[in-house]
Design goal:
The chain has 682 residues and is an alpha/beta fold. Helix content is 19%, strand content 23%. It is built from 7 helices and 33 strands. Pfam families: fn3, I-set, LRR_8.
Length: 682
């Protein structure tokens, strides 16, 4: 019984597996591993119905373009994944995050442009990574971070790589094979292969390498190496097809005893094209550096920029360093910058930069030095707490008229009046929240000034701000100030000192001032209230006028609609009918001798009946029919009344006005007819 149940269970599992196999694929259930084979089936994407228990998945030779995170989700048991020979150009980050058991990943012969830091994330047990024959132009520094200690085979050949994350390669201690051939590599960091003791194959063929870093690992590539062990196997090393620069830096490689792989020299000119292993050791020479151009002397005003140049030649190309006057090695900082061509830029000079800078050019054959003398013309510096300045090295006693002092300050005569204080040489006026006008005066006996300099600073910091002003100006507007802040300002004059042939400076004068506080300007409350009141009054008048006009229109409309029908009904009840032109009999209550009354005003009944019928029936056609019937019946007919049960139609203003006009015209016509029938003698 148990055997029968086991057989049925196995049959059911096999049927379920076969049923879950994607279309056009072949699924193999060997022992406990499931293989899904879909090679060269013309697939445009990864089949979504792949069994998540698959151990081996082959999708090579298809037309898959994109890999998404859902393609391999929950496939924790997948060991071998082949995506070779597709057209994959993009892999979504974290697409392999669930493939924690994956050992081999084949991505060769695709169109991948790069590998991001999260492209291969999650492959913690990966041993073989094959990404050759792609279009890789760059690899992120953290791309291999998850499998640095497990990777054994890395193939990046036939790509467009200019560089690699060499620090990551250095930590791949279990790496056995590294294929980097047919790329664009031109530099390998020194010490990259120092810890790769298990490396057995290194291929650097057809790159742009001019030199290789000396490393003990290359000693295992010698043909006579007898120290190979399972933990340090012999190294198969290929580096042909590189433009090697055959100088003293490659002498260590030439001294290795290995087979001739037809490597050639690319430079220098005397060795170009010769086989590397046929060049004698004496020909691997270097040339010591020679400084060909450098700055000799430099005079700089304190606070200004300075540029020091130094160029050198040699084989190999020398590296240039700079040493400051205080024997400090100058590097890149916020104040200085050293460039590859040997130029040193000092963005802001200080008094400490005065002295001799040393340019050192060094290569494998030696070094050369040159001195650059830098002279800094010091300027007086201001302090936040006082307007006093430090005296400069060069002084001119009569630079300003106010700087002259009379000898014998006590005076020789008792009756001599005291002298008034000297006039200030620097005046600050027209101070606003962000600007101030500075004026100064210079004595006529002063030397010819080349230029003036304004230097000022805020009381909140120590940063001096400089402004260079032509000698023809004696006033300057300082802008971009901070409101409500105190400033210390000095004006300096610069001229050529004939005694030292240097540019001398002296102070014209100093001043202190405070900018105005930036308070918002208040407007008159009265004007605001008056303006708002006028706007409200005018607006209220306009609104009230519109409301009154609307109410009048509504009242007139309602009055016309409701009162017109009642008036017409009253008029109809008081109308006498005309009977063959005779007059109505006089009332019986009239006195016997009273004069005969004139004929009463006869109103045509038909028109009133016409209008009343039009209001009741709301139809022009029915009005015209009632007119015809009335004329046919004659004037002796009794008046027609609207039945009380009939619904009264809602009159309209247009129809009411039309009825009045029609009634007026017809009444005039009937009166004319009656006048024509009346005898002339009456």
């Amino acid at each position: 019984m148990e055997t029968l149940l086991g057989g049925l269970l196995a049959f059911g599992m096999a049927f379920a597996v076969v049923d879950a196999c994607p279309k056009y694929c072949v699924c193999q259930n060997l022992s406990e591993s499931l293989g899904t084979l879909c090679p060269s089936k013309g697939l445009l994407f990864v089949p979504p119905d792949i069994d998540r228990r698959t151990v081996e998945l082959r999708l090579g030779g298809n037309f898959i373009i994109h890999i998404s995170r859902q393609d391999f989700a929950n496939m924790t048991g997948l060991v071998d994944l082949t995506l070779s020979r597709n057209t994959i150009s993009h892999i979504q980050p974290f697409s392999f995050l669930d493939l924690e058991s994956l050992r081999s990943l084949h991505l060769d012969s695709n169109r991948l442009p790069s590998l991001g830091e999260d492209t291969l994330r999650g492959l913690v047990n990966l041993q073989h990574l094959i990404v050759n024959n792609n279009q890789l132009g760059g690899i992120a520094d953290e791309a291999f971070e998850d499998f640095l200690l497990t990777l054994e085979d890395l193939d990046l050949s036939y790509n467009n790589l200019h560089g690699l994350p060499w620090d990551s390669v250095r930590r791949m201690v279990n790496l056995h094979q590294l294929s980097l051939d047919h790329n664009l590599l031109d530099h390998i960091a020194e010490g990259t292969f120092a810890d790769l003791q298990k490396l057995a194959r290194l291929d650097l063929t057809s790159n742009r390498l001019q030199k290789l870093p000396p490393d003990p690992i290359f000693a295992r590539s010698q043909a006579s190496a007898l120290t190979a062990t399972p933990f340090a196997p012999p190294l198969s090393f290929s580096f042909g097809g590189n433009p090697l620069h055959c100088n003293c830096e490659l002498l260590w490689l030439r001294r290795l005893e290995r087979d001739d792989d037809l490597e050639t020299c690319g430079s220098p000119g005397g060795l170009k094209g010769r086989y590397f292993w046929h060049v004698r050791e004496e020909e691997f020479v270097c040339e010591p550096p020679l400084i060909t151009q450098h700055t000799h002397k430099l005079l700089v005003l304190e606070g200004q920029a300075a540029t020091l140049k130094c160029k050198a030649i040699g084989d190999p190309s020398p590296l240039i360093h700079w040493v400051a006057p205080d024997d400090r090695l100058v590097g890149n900082s916020s104040r200085t910058a050293v460039y590859d061509n040997g130029t040193l830029d000092i963005f802001i000079t200080t008094s400490q930069d005065s002295g001799a800078f040393t340019c050192i050019a060094a290569n494998a054959a030696g070094e050369a030095t040159a001195m650059v003398e830098v002279s800094i013309v010091q300027l007086p510096h201001l302090s936040n707490s006082t307007s006093r300045t430090a005296p400069p090295k060069s002084r001119l006693s009569d630079i300003t008229g106010s700087s002259k002092t009379s000898r014998g300050g006590g005076g020789s005569g008792g009756g001599e009046p005291p002298k008034s204080p000297p006039e200030r040489a620097v005046l600050v006026s027209e101070v606003t929240t962000t600007s101030a006008l500075v004026k100064w005066s210079v004595s006529k006996s002063a030397p010819r000034v080349k230029m003036y300099q304004l230097q000022y600073n805020c009381s909140d910091d120590e940063v001096l701000i400089y402004r260079m002003i032509p000698a023809s100006n004696k006033a300057f507007v300082v802008n971009n100030l901070v409101s409500g802040t105190g400033y210390d300002l000095c004006v300096l004059a610069m001229w050529d000192d004939t005694a030292t042939t240097l540019t001398a400076t002296n102070i014209v004068g100093c001043a202190q001032f405070f900018t105005k506080a930036d308070y918002p300007q208040c407007q008159s409350m009265h004007s605001q209230i008056l303006g708002g009141t006028m706007i409200l009054v005018i607006g209220g008048i306009i609104v009230a006028t519109l409301l009154v006009f609307i109410v009048i229109l509504m009242v007139r409309y309602k009055v016309c609609n409701h009162e017109a029908p009642s008036k017409m009904a009253a008029a109809v009840s008081n109308v006498y009918s005309q009977t063959n032109g005779a007059q109505p009999p006089p009332p019986s209550s009239a006195p016997a001798g009273a004069p005969p009354q004139g004929p009463p005003k006869v109103v045509v009944r038909n028109e009133l009946l016409d209008f009343t019928a039009s209001l009741a029936r709301a139809s022009d056609s029915s009005s015209s029919s009632s007119l015809g019937s009335g004329e046919a019946a004659g004037l002796g007919r009794a008046p027609w009344r609207i039945p009380p049960s009939a619904p009264r139609p809602k009159p309209s203003l247009d129809r009411l006005m039309g009825a009045f006009a029609s009634l007026d015209l017809k009444s005039q016509r009937k009166e004319e007819l009656l006048d024509s029938r009346t005898p002339a003698g009456r």
